[in-house]
Amino acid sequence: MFILKNSSSISQVAQLRSPKFRQTGSNCTLSFWYYNYGRSVGAAEMHLLVDGLKQPTVLWKAYYNEGNQWLKAVIQLGRLPRPFQLSLDKISLGFYDGVSAIDDITFENCALPPPALSCEGANRFWCRDTKACIDSLLVCDLVDNCGDGSDEDNCNPDLQCDFENGLCNWEQDVEDDFDWIRIQGPTPTVNTGPLTDHTTGTARGHYLYMESSEPRQFQDKALLLSPLFNPSGNGTCIFRFHYHMFGKEVYKLSVFQRTVSNTKGWLLWYKFGNQGNRWIRQTLYISSSKPFQILVKGTVGDGFTGDIGLDDMSFLDCTLYNGNLPTISTTTSGTSVPATLPMNNCTEKEFVCRASGHCIQMIQKCDFRPDCSDMSDESACVMEVCNFEDKNQCGWYQPALEQMSGNDSIHTTNLFKWELGRGANLYPGQEKHCPLIDHTTCTAEGWYLFADSSNGEFGHIADIATPVISLTGPKCKIIFWNYMNGSTIGSLEVLCKTSNRTSKLWTQSGSQGPQWNRAEVFLGIRSNFQVVFRAKHGVSYMGDVAMDDITFEDCSPLVIPGRPCTSEEFTCANKYCIPKDSLCDFVNDCADNSDESPAI
Protein backbone atom coordinates (compact mmCIF):
# COMPACT_ATOMS: atom_id res chain seq x y z
CA MET A 1 0.00 0.00 0.00
CA PHE A 2 1.53 3.33 -0.98
CA ILE A 3 0.83 7.09 -1.28
CA LEU A 4 2.06 9.28 -4.14
CA LYS A 5 1.93 13.09 -4.46
CA ASN A 6 -1.52 14.15 -5.67
CA SER A 7 -2.32 17.45 -3.92
CA SER A 8 -0.80 20.43 -2.16
CA SER A 9 -3.71 21.11 0.20
CA ILE A 10 -2.75 22.23 3.69
CA SER A 11 -2.94 19.55 6.43
CA GLN A 12 -4.26 16.85 4.15
CA VAL A 13 -4.39 13.47 5.96
CA ALA A 14 -4.46 10.01 4.40
CA GLN A 15 -5.66 7.25 6.76
CA LEU A 16 -5.39 3.48 6.49
CA ARG A 17 -7.57 1.71 9.10
CA SER A 18 -7.27 -1.88 10.33
CA PRO A 19 -10.23 -4.15 11.01
CA LYS A 20 -11.54 -3.97 14.60
CA PHE A 21 -9.88 -6.47 16.97
CA ARG A 22 -11.62 -7.70 20.14
CA GLN A 23 -8.56 -8.03 22.44
CA THR A 24 -4.91 -9.08 22.60
CA GLY A 25 -2.75 -11.21 24.90
CA SER A 26 0.01 -9.76 27.09
CA ASN A 27 2.89 -10.56 24.68
CA CYS A 28 1.29 -9.14 21.52
CA THR A 29 3.52 -7.29 19.03
CA LEU A 30 2.81 -5.70 15.66
CA SER A 31 5.51 -5.46 13.00
CA PHE A 32 5.54 -4.00 9.50
CA TRP A 33 7.93 -2.71 6.85
CA TYR A 34 7.67 0.92 5.80
CA TYR A 35 9.14 3.17 3.12
CA ASN A 36 9.28 6.96 3.60
CA TYR A 37 11.38 8.61 0.87
CA GLY A 38 11.38 11.96 -0.89
CA ARG A 39 12.53 15.55 -0.61
CA SER A 40 9.52 16.65 1.51
CA VAL A 41 7.86 13.35 2.25
CA GLY A 42 6.69 14.45 5.73
CA ALA A 43 5.62 12.46 8.79
CA ALA A 44 3.63 9.25 9.30
CA GLU A 45 2.07 7.96 12.53
CA MET A 46 0.47 4.71 13.74
CA HIS A 47 -2.48 5.43 16.09
CA LEU A 48 -4.28 3.10 18.52
CA LEU A 49 -8.05 3.73 18.74
CA VAL A 50 -9.59 1.96 21.76
CA ASP A 51 -13.37 1.73 22.26
CA GLY A 52 -14.42 4.08 25.06
CA LEU A 53 -11.31 6.26 24.87
CA LYS A 54 -11.69 9.57 23.04
CA GLN A 55 -7.97 10.26 22.79
CA PRO A 56 -6.02 8.20 20.23
CA THR A 57 -2.60 6.88 21.28
CA VAL A 58 0.44 7.37 19.06
CA LEU A 59 2.31 4.05 18.89
CA TRP A 60 4.90 4.86 16.20
CA LYS A 61 6.21 7.84 14.22
CA ALA A 62 8.35 8.41 11.14
CA TYR A 63 9.27 12.10 11.06
CA TYR A 64 11.20 12.62 7.84
CA ASN A 65 12.86 11.22 4.73
CA GLU A 66 14.53 7.94 5.75
CA GLY A 67 16.19 7.13 2.46
CA ASN A 68 15.48 4.91 -0.52
CA GLN A 69 15.01 1.75 1.56
CA TRP A 70 12.48 -0.43 3.37
CA LEU A 71 12.77 -0.30 7.17
CA LYS A 72 11.16 -2.55 9.78
CA ALA A 73 9.06 -1.21 12.67
CA VAL A 74 8.12 -3.31 15.72
CA ILE A 75 5.37 -2.05 18.05
CA GLN A 76 4.65 -3.55 21.46
CA LEU A 77 0.85 -3.74 21.88
CA GLY A 78 0.71 -5.88 25.03
CA ARG A 79 -2.58 -6.73 26.73
CA LEU A 80 -5.46 -4.71 25.26
CA PRO A 81 -8.68 -5.99 26.90
CA ARG A 82 -11.11 -3.78 24.92
CA PRO A 83 -11.95 -3.70 21.20
CA PHE A 84 -9.59 -1.52 19.19
CA GLN A 85 -8.46 -0.44 15.73
CA LEU A 86 -5.15 0.74 14.32
CA SER A 87 -4.89 3.77 12.03
CA LEU A 88 -1.87 4.63 9.89
CA ASP A 89 -2.02 8.40 9.32
CA LYS A 90 0.04 10.26 6.68
CA ILE A 91 0.07 14.04 7.08
CA SER A 92 0.79 16.53 4.30
CA LEU A 93 1.90 20.01 5.37
CA GLY A 94 1.18 21.84 2.14
CA PHE A 95 4.02 20.62 -0.09
CA TYR A 96 4.34 16.89 -0.43
CA ASP A 97 7.02 15.37 -2.60
CA GLY A 98 7.79 11.71 -2.01
CA VAL A 99 6.52 8.16 -1.58
CA SER A 100 5.22 6.53 1.61
CA ALA A 101 4.46 2.82 1.64
CA ILE A 102 3.71 -0.04 4.05
CA ASP A 103 3.99 -3.80 3.56
CA ASP A 104 4.13 -7.15 5.38
CA ILE A 105 2.02 -6.29 8.44
CA THR A 106 2.34 -9.07 11.04
CA PHE A 107 0.75 -9.68 14.47
CA GLU A 108 2.71 -12.06 16.72
CA ASN A 109 1.85 -13.74 20.05
CA CYS A 110 -1.45 -11.85 20.18
CA ALA A 111 -3.79 -14.69 21.19
CA LEU A 112 -4.69 -15.38 24.82
CA PRO A 113 -2.98 -18.47 26.31
CA PRO A 114 -4.86 -21.66 25.30
CA PRO A 115 -7.03 -23.57 27.81
CA ALA A 116 -5.51 -26.60 29.49
CA LEU A 117 -7.18 -29.81 30.68
CA SER A 118 -5.05 -29.80 33.84
CA CYS A 119 -2.54 -27.53 35.55
CA GLU A 120 -0.33 -29.32 38.03
CA GLY A 121 2.86 -28.24 39.70
CA ALA A 122 3.89 -25.79 42.40
CA ASN A 123 5.05 -23.25 39.82
CA ARG A 124 1.83 -23.19 37.78
CA PHE A 125 -1.42 -21.19 38.07
CA TRP A 126 -4.75 -22.30 36.53
CA CYS A 127 -6.78 -19.35 35.25
CA ARG A 128 -10.38 -19.26 36.53
CA ASP A 129 -12.41 -18.69 33.35
CA THR A 130 -10.05 -19.14 30.39
CA LYS A 131 -8.57 -22.31 31.99
CA ALA A 132 -5.12 -21.35 30.74
CA CYS A 133 -2.15 -22.75 32.70
CA ILE A 134 0.47 -20.03 33.29
CA ASP A 135 3.72 -19.66 35.24
CA SER A 136 3.07 -18.66 38.86
CA LEU A 137 5.69 -15.91 38.46
CA LEU A 138 3.04 -14.08 36.39
CA VAL A 139 0.59 -13.91 39.30
CA CYS A 140 0.00 -10.47 40.87
CA ASP A 141 2.41 -8.72 38.46
CA LEU A 142 -0.14 -6.06 37.32
CA VAL A 143 -0.53 -7.76 33.91
CA ASP A 144 -3.66 -9.73 32.97
CA ASN A 145 -1.84 -12.77 31.60
CA CYS A 146 -4.88 -15.09 31.95
CA GLY A 147 -7.21 -12.92 29.89
CA ASP A 148 -9.89 -13.07 32.59
CA GLY A 149 -8.05 -11.12 35.31
CA SER A 150 -7.97 -14.07 37.71
CA ASP A 151 -4.17 -13.98 38.03
CA GLU A 152 -4.54 -10.42 39.39
CA ASP A 153 -7.34 -11.18 41.90
CA ASN A 154 -6.75 -11.13 45.68
CA CYS A 155 -3.35 -9.43 45.38
CA ASN A 156 -1.93 -7.28 48.15
CA PRO A 157 -2.00 -3.66 46.85
CA ASP A 158 0.88 -2.75 49.18
CA LEU A 159 3.14 -5.05 47.12
CA GLN A 160 2.22 -3.52 43.74
CA CYS A 161 2.45 -0.15 41.98
CA ASP A 162 1.32 0.76 38.46
CA PHE A 163 1.69 4.52 39.17
CA GLU A 164 -1.87 5.23 38.02
CA ASN A 165 -2.62 6.94 41.37
CA GLY A 166 0.79 8.21 42.46
CA LEU A 167 3.91 6.48 43.81
CA CYS A 168 2.00 4.05 46.11
CA ASN A 169 4.39 3.25 48.99
CA TRP A 170 7.57 3.96 47.00
CA GLU A 171 9.44 7.17 47.83
CA GLN A 172 11.85 9.55 46.09
CA ASP A 173 15.29 9.63 47.72
CA VAL A 174 16.11 13.05 49.19
CA GLU A 175 19.88 12.63 48.86
CA ASP A 176 20.07 12.08 45.08
CA ASP A 177 20.42 14.72 42.33
CA PHE A 178 16.82 14.86 41.04
CA ASP A 179 13.50 12.97 41.07
CA TRP A 180 11.68 10.49 38.89
CA ILE A 181 8.69 12.13 37.13
CA ARG A 182 5.18 10.62 36.85
CA ILE A 183 3.79 11.16 33.34
CA GLN A 184 1.18 10.13 30.75
CA GLY A 185 1.95 9.60 27.06
CA PRO A 186 5.33 10.34 25.46
CA THR A 187 8.23 12.05 27.22
CA PRO A 188 8.95 15.64 26.03
CA THR A 189 12.01 14.71 23.93
CA VAL A 190 11.63 12.90 20.58
CA ASN A 191 13.54 9.68 19.83
CA THR A 192 13.85 8.74 23.51
CA GLY A 193 11.56 7.44 26.26
CA PRO A 194 8.24 5.56 25.97
CA LEU A 195 5.21 6.67 23.94
CA THR A 196 2.79 4.82 26.29
CA ASP A 197 2.78 3.27 29.74
CA HIS A 198 3.09 -0.50 30.21
CA THR A 199 -0.07 -1.06 32.30
CA THR A 200 -2.66 0.11 29.74
CA GLY A 201 -0.55 0.43 26.58
CA THR A 202 -2.24 3.77 25.90
CA ALA A 203 -1.53 7.49 26.33
CA ARG A 204 -4.03 7.47 29.21
CA GLY A 205 -1.83 5.32 31.50
CA HIS A 206 0.85 6.63 33.88
CA TYR A 207 4.48 5.60 34.40
CA LEU A 208 7.66 7.04 35.88
CA TYR A 209 10.48 8.40 33.79
CA MET A 210 13.90 9.96 34.29
CA GLU A 211 14.42 13.16 32.27
CA SER A 212 17.91 13.43 30.72
CA SER A 213 17.64 16.91 29.18
CA GLU A 214 19.12 20.08 30.68
CA PRO A 215 19.71 21.02 33.45
CA ARG A 216 20.66 17.39 34.00
CA GLN A 217 24.37 16.50 33.66
CA PHE A 218 26.29 13.30 32.98
CA GLN A 219 25.99 10.82 35.88
CA ASP A 220 23.28 12.76 37.73
CA LYS A 221 21.30 10.15 39.68
CA ALA A 222 17.60 9.69 40.53
CA LEU A 223 16.80 7.09 43.22
CA LEU A 224 13.47 5.47 44.04
CA LEU A 225 13.10 3.71 47.41
CA SER A 226 10.82 0.72 48.01
CA PRO A 227 8.96 0.07 51.26
CA LEU A 228 10.81 -2.07 53.83
CA PHE A 229 10.50 -5.86 53.76
CA ASN A 230 10.87 -8.60 56.34
CA PRO A 231 13.76 -11.10 56.05
CA SER A 232 13.03 -13.69 53.38
CA GLY A 233 13.78 -16.62 55.70
CA ASN A 234 14.52 -19.82 53.81
CA GLY A 235 12.64 -18.63 50.72
CA THR A 236 13.14 -15.78 48.27
CA CYS A 237 11.29 -12.53 47.76
CA ILE A 238 10.62 -11.93 44.05
CA PHE A 239 10.75 -8.42 42.56
CA ARG A 240 9.22 -7.85 39.11
CA PHE A 241 9.33 -4.58 37.18
CA HIS A 242 9.20 -3.24 33.62
CA TYR A 243 11.77 -0.80 32.28
CA HIS A 244 12.14 1.22 29.07
CA MET A 245 15.59 2.33 27.92
CA PHE A 246 15.37 3.90 24.47
CA GLY A 247 17.66 6.60 23.07
CA LYS A 248 21.17 6.95 21.68
CA GLU A 249 22.48 8.43 24.93
CA VAL A 250 20.71 6.20 27.49
CA TYR A 251 23.21 5.43 30.25
CA LYS A 252 22.33 3.10 33.13
CA LEU A 253 19.54 1.66 35.29
CA SER A 254 20.57 -0.19 38.48
CA VAL A 255 18.82 -2.03 41.33
CA PHE A 256 20.40 -2.23 44.79
CA GLN A 257 19.47 -4.02 48.03
CA ARG A 258 20.33 -2.57 51.43
CA THR A 259 19.89 -3.59 55.07
CA VAL A 260 21.40 -0.37 56.50
CA SER A 261 19.56 2.90 55.81
CA ASN A 262 22.52 5.24 55.28
CA THR A 263 24.33 3.11 52.68
CA LYS A 264 23.76 2.45 49.00
CA GLY A 265 23.74 -1.30 49.63
CA TRP A 266 24.94 -3.80 47.05
CA LEU A 267 24.20 -4.17 43.36
CA LEU A 268 21.58 -6.78 42.37
CA TRP A 269 21.20 -5.93 38.68
CA TYR A 270 21.97 -3.27 36.11
CA LYS A 271 21.40 -2.56 32.44
CA PHE A 272 23.52 -0.21 30.35
CA GLY A 273 22.74 1.61 27.07
CA ASN A 274 19.96 1.68 24.49
CA GLN A 275 17.67 -1.40 24.73
CA GLY A 276 15.24 -0.41 21.97
CA ASN A 277 11.80 1.22 21.96
CA ARG A 278 10.03 -1.36 24.12
CA TRP A 279 9.06 -2.19 27.69
CA ILE A 280 11.17 -5.05 29.07
CA ARG A 281 10.21 -7.25 32.02
CA GLN A 282 12.85 -8.07 34.66
CA THR A 283 12.57 -10.55 37.54
CA LEU A 284 14.96 -10.48 40.51
CA TYR A 285 15.19 -13.05 43.33
CA ILE A 286 16.08 -11.55 46.70
CA SER A 287 17.37 -13.37 49.76
CA SER A 288 18.01 -11.63 53.06
CA SER A 289 18.47 -12.63 56.68
CA LYS A 290 17.66 -9.08 57.77
CA PRO A 291 14.96 -6.51 56.98
CA PHE A 292 15.82 -4.89 53.66
CA GLN A 293 14.92 -2.24 51.12
CA ILE A 294 15.23 -2.04 47.31
CA LEU A 295 16.71 1.01 45.57
CA VAL A 296 16.15 1.68 41.86
CA LYS A 297 18.68 4.13 40.45
CA GLY A 298 18.65 5.83 37.06
CA THR A 299 21.84 7.54 35.87
CA VAL A 300 21.91 10.26 33.21
CA GLY A 301 24.04 9.78 30.09
CA ASP A 302 25.96 12.19 27.91
CA GLY A 303 23.00 13.89 26.19
CA PHE A 304 19.27 14.59 26.10
CA THR A 305 18.23 11.37 24.27
CA GLY A 306 18.64 9.28 27.42
CA ASP A 307 15.21 9.07 29.08
CA ILE A 308 14.47 5.91 31.12
CA GLY A 309 10.97 4.63 32.06
CA LEU A 310 9.68 2.42 34.93
CA ASP A 311 6.25 0.81 35.34
CA ASP A 312 4.33 -2.08 36.94
CA MET A 313 6.62 -2.82 39.90
CA SER A 314 5.48 -5.72 42.10
CA PHE A 315 6.70 -8.14 44.77
CA LEU A 316 5.76 -11.79 45.24
CA ASP A 317 6.27 -13.94 48.37
CA CYS A 318 7.38 -10.85 50.33
CA THR A 319 5.95 -9.25 53.49
CA LEU A 320 6.23 -5.64 54.62
CA TYR A 321 8.40 -4.77 57.64
CA ASN A 322 6.89 -2.41 60.20
CA GLY A 323 10.02 -0.71 61.49
CA ASN A 324 13.16 1.12 60.45
CA LEU A 325 16.47 -0.10 59.05
CA PRO A 326 19.49 0.46 61.32
CA THR A 327 22.14 3.07 60.55
CA ILE A 328 25.89 2.85 60.96
CA SER A 329 28.34 5.56 61.91
CA THR A 330 30.54 6.29 58.93
CA THR A 331 34.13 7.26 58.31
CA THR A 332 35.18 9.10 55.15
CA SER A 333 35.13 5.82 53.25
CA GLY A 334 31.52 5.20 54.27
CA THR A 335 32.17 2.30 56.64
CA SER A 336 32.68 1.90 60.35
CA VAL A 337 36.17 0.55 61.03
CA PRO A 338 37.26 0.27 64.67
CA ALA A 339 40.94 0.85 65.41
CA THR A 340 41.28 -2.56 67.10
CA LEU A 341 39.82 -5.84 65.92
CA PRO A 342 36.78 -7.14 67.83
CA MET A 343 36.80 -10.48 69.61
CA ASN A 344 36.87 -13.22 66.99
CA ASN A 345 37.81 -16.80 66.20
CA CYS A 346 39.13 -16.10 62.70
CA THR A 347 42.22 -17.78 61.30
CA GLU A 348 45.08 -15.99 59.55
CA LYS A 349 43.51 -16.97 56.23
CA GLU A 350 40.23 -15.25 57.08
CA PHE A 351 39.15 -11.60 57.18
CA VAL A 352 37.67 -10.20 60.40
CA CYS A 353 34.57 -8.04 59.93
CA ARG A 354 35.38 -4.92 61.92
CA ALA A 355 32.02 -4.34 63.59
CA SER A 356 30.88 -7.89 64.35
CA GLY A 357 34.02 -10.03 64.48
CA HIS A 358 32.39 -12.32 61.91
CA CYS A 359 34.86 -14.33 59.78
CA ILE A 360 34.74 -14.46 55.98
CA GLN A 361 37.09 -16.02 53.45
CA MET A 362 39.96 -13.77 52.36
CA ILE A 363 38.87 -14.21 48.72
CA GLN A 364 35.69 -12.30 49.70
CA LYS A 365 37.67 -9.17 50.60
CA CYS A 366 37.77 -6.54 47.82
CA ASP A 367 35.49 -8.44 45.42
CA PHE A 368 32.93 -5.64 44.84
CA ARG A 369 30.36 -7.43 47.07
CA PRO A 370 30.05 -6.48 50.77
CA ASP A 371 29.95 -9.69 52.81
CA CYS A 372 30.33 -8.00 56.22
CA SER A 373 27.28 -6.18 57.62
CA ASP A 374 29.41 -3.04 58.05
CA MET A 375 30.98 -3.48 54.57
CA SER A 376 34.45 -3.33 56.14
CA ASP A 377 35.62 -6.06 53.73
CA GLU A 378 35.28 -3.48 50.92
CA SER A 379 36.57 -0.42 52.81
CA ALA A 380 40.28 -0.56 51.89
CA CYS A 381 39.56 -1.39 48.26
CA VAL A 382 39.06 0.48 45.02
CA MET A 383 35.58 2.00 44.74
CA GLU A 384 33.22 0.79 42.00
CA VAL A 385 32.74 4.33 40.68
CA CYS A 386 35.23 7.19 40.97
CA ASN A 387 34.67 10.72 39.66
CA PHE A 388 37.47 12.37 41.75
CA GLU A 389 35.11 15.02 43.10
CA ASP A 390 35.95 16.28 46.61
CA LYS A 391 39.55 15.37 45.66
CA ASN A 392 38.82 11.71 46.50
CA GLN A 393 41.02 9.14 44.72
CA CYS A 394 38.71 6.23 45.68
CA GLY A 395 41.48 3.81 46.68
CA TRP A 396 43.66 4.33 43.59
CA TYR A 397 47.30 4.83 44.64
CA GLN A 398 50.75 5.33 43.07
CA PRO A 399 53.17 2.51 44.05
CA ALA A 400 56.29 4.53 43.09
CA LEU A 401 55.31 7.46 45.34
CA GLU A 402 54.53 5.18 48.29
CA GLN A 403 57.97 3.58 48.00
CA MET A 404 59.56 7.03 48.07
CA SER A 405 57.46 8.39 50.93
CA GLY A 406 59.73 6.87 53.57
CA ASN A 407 62.83 8.56 52.15
CA ASP A 408 62.99 12.23 53.13
CA SER A 409 65.87 12.94 50.76
CA ILE A 410 63.74 12.30 47.67
CA HIS A 411 61.44 15.11 46.55
CA THR A 412 58.49 14.12 44.35
CA THR A 413 57.62 17.66 43.19
CA ASN A 414 59.18 17.37 39.71
CA LEU A 415 58.41 13.70 39.11
CA PHE A 416 56.18 12.60 36.22
CA LYS A 417 53.19 11.37 38.25
CA TRP A 418 49.41 11.30 38.44
CA GLU A 419 47.74 14.18 40.27
CA LEU A 420 44.32 15.72 40.71
CA GLY A 421 43.54 18.76 38.59
CA ARG A 422 40.73 20.96 37.32
CA GLY A 423 40.24 23.59 34.64
CA ALA A 424 40.01 26.41 37.18
CA ASN A 425 43.62 25.76 38.26
CA LEU A 426 45.25 25.73 34.80
CA TYR A 427 47.92 28.29 34.00
CA PRO A 428 47.73 30.34 30.74
CA GLY A 429 48.39 28.16 27.69
CA GLN A 430 47.97 24.87 29.56
CA GLU A 431 44.41 24.47 28.19
CA LYS A 432 45.95 23.56 24.81
CA HIS A 433 46.99 20.17 26.16
CA CYS A 434 44.99 19.72 29.41
CA PRO A 435 41.17 19.62 29.90
CA LEU A 436 39.43 22.91 30.67
CA ILE A 437 36.45 21.00 32.08
CA ASP A 438 36.11 17.62 33.78
CA HIS A 439 33.84 14.88 32.41
CA THR A 440 31.61 14.43 35.48
CA THR A 441 30.27 17.96 35.91
CA CYS A 442 31.41 19.50 32.59
CA THR A 443 32.66 22.53 34.50
CA ALA A 444 36.04 24.11 35.29
CA GLU A 445 35.36 23.37 38.98
CA GLY A 446 35.14 19.59 38.51
CA TRP A 447 38.13 17.39 39.32
CA TYR A 448 39.92 14.81 37.18
CA LEU A 449 43.15 12.81 37.30
CA PHE A 450 46.04 13.78 35.02
CA ALA A 451 49.74 13.05 34.41
CA ASP A 452 51.50 16.43 34.13
CA SER A 453 54.07 16.25 31.31
CA SER A 454 55.77 19.47 32.43
CA ASN A 455 57.43 17.16 34.98
CA GLY A 456 59.75 14.31 34.11
CA GLU A 457 61.37 13.45 30.79
CA PHE A 458 60.68 11.57 27.56
CA GLY A 459 60.01 7.88 28.24
CA HIS A 460 59.24 8.26 31.95
CA ILE A 461 56.18 6.35 33.18
CA ALA A 462 53.54 7.13 35.82
CA ASP A 463 51.53 4.23 37.28
CA ILE A 464 48.37 4.43 39.37
CA ALA A 465 46.91 1.16 40.64
CA THR A 466 44.06 -0.44 42.56
CA PRO A 467 44.67 -2.35 45.78
CA VAL A 468 44.61 -6.12 45.14
CA ILE A 469 41.19 -7.24 43.87
CA SER A 470 40.41 -10.74 45.18
CA LEU A 471 37.89 -11.96 42.62
CA THR A 472 35.68 -10.68 39.79
CA GLY A 473 32.69 -12.06 37.88
CA PRO A 474 32.44 -13.20 34.24
CA LYS A 475 31.01 -9.91 32.91
CA CYS A 476 33.39 -7.58 34.74
CA LYS A 477 34.69 -4.62 32.78
CA ILE A 478 36.24 -1.25 33.51
CA ILE A 479 34.87 1.87 31.80
CA PHE A 480 36.69 5.20 31.88
CA TRP A 481 36.89 8.54 30.08
CA ASN A 482 40.24 9.80 28.82
CA TYR A 483 41.48 13.10 27.43
CA MET A 484 44.61 13.00 25.25
CA ASN A 485 45.17 16.23 23.37
CA GLY A 486 48.50 17.85 22.44
CA SER A 487 51.21 17.74 19.82
CA THR A 488 53.54 15.46 21.82
CA ILE A 489 51.18 13.12 23.67
CA GLY A 490 52.79 9.86 24.78
CA SER A 491 50.49 6.94 25.57
CA LEU A 492 48.01 5.52 28.07
CA GLU A 493 47.87 1.81 28.92
CA VAL A 494 45.65 -0.41 31.06
CA LEU A 495 47.59 -3.27 32.67
CA CYS A 496 46.60 -6.32 34.71
CA LYS A 497 49.20 -7.14 37.36
CA THR A 498 49.40 -10.37 39.38
CA SER A 499 52.15 -11.52 41.74
CA ASN A 500 54.29 -12.91 38.92
CA ARG A 501 53.02 -11.39 35.68
CA THR A 502 51.92 -8.08 34.15
CA SER A 503 49.87 -8.11 30.93
CA LYS A 504 48.68 -5.25 28.73
CA LEU A 505 44.89 -5.09 28.23
CA TRP A 506 44.48 -1.80 26.34
CA THR A 507 46.65 0.96 24.90
CA GLN A 508 46.17 4.28 23.14
CA SER A 509 48.84 6.69 21.92
CA GLY A 510 49.01 10.08 20.23
CA SER A 511 46.59 13.00 20.26
CA GLN A 512 42.88 12.03 20.26
CA GLY A 513 41.47 15.56 19.93
CA PRO A 514 40.22 18.17 22.44
CA GLN A 515 37.42 16.12 24.00
CA TRP A 516 36.75 13.38 26.54
CA ASN A 517 36.65 9.91 24.94
CA ARG A 518 35.02 6.80 26.39
CA ALA A 519 36.99 3.54 26.70
CA GLU A 520 35.92 0.11 27.87
CA VAL A 521 38.17 -2.81 28.86
CA PHE A 522 36.84 -6.32 29.52
CA LEU A 523 38.28 -7.98 32.62
CA GLY A 524 36.09 -11.08 33.09
CA ILE A 525 36.93 -13.61 35.80
CA ARG A 526 40.27 -12.84 37.47
CA SER A 527 41.62 -13.36 40.97
CA ASN A 528 44.24 -11.63 43.15
CA PHE A 529 45.19 -8.95 40.67
CA GLN A 530 45.56 -5.19 40.33
CA VAL A 531 44.44 -2.87 37.55
CA VAL A 532 47.13 -0.34 36.63
CA PHE A 533 46.80 2.79 34.48
CA ARG A 534 50.19 3.66 32.98
CA ALA A 535 50.94 7.02 31.32
CA LYS A 536 54.11 7.30 29.22
CA HIS A 537 55.77 10.72 28.81
CA GLY A 538 55.96 12.14 25.28
CA VAL A 539 58.89 14.05 23.77
CA SER A 540 57.91 17.39 25.36
CA TYR A 541 55.54 19.03 27.84
CA MET A 542 52.79 19.55 25.19
CA GLY A 543 50.87 16.40 26.00
CA ASP A 544 49.10 15.67 29.31
CA VAL A 545 47.06 12.48 29.75
CA ALA A 546 43.85 12.83 31.83
CA MET A 547 41.19 10.41 33.12
CA ASP A 548 37.78 10.76 34.76
CA ASP A 549 34.73 8.71 35.76
CA ILE A 550 36.41 5.32 36.21
CA THR A 551 33.77 2.63 36.73
CA PHE A 552 33.95 -1.11 37.43
CA GLU A 553 30.78 -2.55 35.84
CA ASP A 554 29.15 -5.83 36.96
CA CYS A 555 32.32 -7.02 38.70
CA SER A 556 30.97 -8.87 41.75
CA PRO A 557 31.54 -12.67 41.51
CA LEU A 558 28.69 -15.07 40.80
CA VAL A 559 26.78 -16.45 43.80
CA ILE A 560 25.10 -19.88 43.79
CA PRO A 561 21.45 -19.17 44.70
CA GLY A 562 19.75 -21.14 47.45
CA ARG A 563 17.02 -22.19 45.02
CA PRO A 564 16.61 -24.10 41.74
CA CYS A 565 16.99 -22.06 38.56
CA THR A 566 13.70 -20.87 37.03
CA SER A 567 12.30 -21.57 33.57
CA GLU A 568 13.74 -18.21 32.44
CA GLU A 569 17.24 -19.24 33.57
CA PHE A 570 19.94 -21.71 32.52
CA THR A 571 21.54 -23.97 35.13
CA CYS A 572 25.32 -23.87 34.74
CA ALA A 573 27.40 -26.98 35.37
CA ASN A 574 28.66 -25.33 38.56
CA LYS A 575 25.03 -24.68 39.72
CA TYR A 576 25.01 -20.93 39.02
CA CYS A 577 21.85 -19.53 37.41
CA ILE A 578 22.12 -17.17 34.43
CA PRO A 579 19.45 -15.66 32.10
CA LYS A 580 18.76 -17.87 29.08
CA ASP A 581 19.46 -14.96 26.72
CA SER A 582 23.11 -15.21 27.86
CA LEU A 583 23.53 -18.62 26.18
CA CYS A 584 25.90 -18.93 23.22
CA ASP A 585 26.84 -15.23 23.24
CA PHE A 586 30.64 -15.79 23.23
CA VAL A 587 30.83 -14.66 26.88
CA ASN A 588 31.75 -17.06 29.71
CA ASP A 589 28.77 -16.05 31.89
CA CYS A 590 28.80 -19.28 33.95
CA ALA A 591 32.52 -19.01 34.80
CA ASP A 592 33.00 -22.63 33.65
CA ASN A 593 32.06 -22.10 29.95
CA SER A 594 29.08 -24.47 30.22
CA ASP A 595 26.83 -21.74 28.74
CA GLU A 596 28.99 -21.76 25.60
CA SER A 597 29.10 -25.55 25.15
CA PRO A 598 28.38 -26.79 21.58
CA ALA A 599 26.07 -29.39 23.20
CA ILE A 600 23.47 -26.76 24.18
From TrEMBL:
Keyword Repeat: yes
Gene3D superfamilies linked: 2.60.120.200, Low-density Lipoprotein Receptor
Listed InterPro entries: ConA-like_dom_sf, LDL_receptor-like_sf, LDLR_class-A_CS, LDrepeatLR_classA_rpt, MAM_dom, MAM_domain-containing
SUPFAM superfamilies: Concanavalin A-like lectins/glucanases, LDL receptor-like module
Keyword match Iron-sulfur: no
Keywords, in A-Z order: Disulfide bond, Repeat
Annotated S-S bridges: 140-155, 366-381, 565-577, 572-590
Record-level GO cellular component terms: membrane
Residue ranges occupied by any MAM domain in the UniProt entry: 1-112, 159-320, 384-557
Name under which the protein is recorded: MALR1 protein
